[in-house]
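Recap from last week: sequence in, structure out.
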Amino acid sequence: MHEQLSAHEKSSNHMTAYQLCVEFSKKIKQGRTVNSENQKKTQMKDGHWREVLKRSVNVVEFLASQTKKRTERNTVRQKETEFLKLLAIIRKFSVVSTDHLIRATSNESHIHYREKTMKKEIIELLGSKIEE
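Predicted structure tokens:
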């Protein structure tokens, strides 16, 4: 048995597998695995969307705080245009807002704050915060 184990440990297959294992171990310690790269990208996207959402909620809060009466004649499109104009002002001061606004207006972004479900969620969150 000892001879077989010794022969196996000297085989090219074992040496290759061992070398790969050592390299992978080093990559794990350095945070250079495929999973860690994907995790970094996901965290960056999460951070981006958090920042976009913060700005969007602040814009909604600002619009809601305005005493200007909204008439029934204002269409949804007019309100969205007003919202985008306000975001355009904000984008002058923020790279995150600029990037997001460009993607939103060019339809590059498929999911954004103008989606019906997103609007409902934001309104419900703001409503519950106001009630507190």
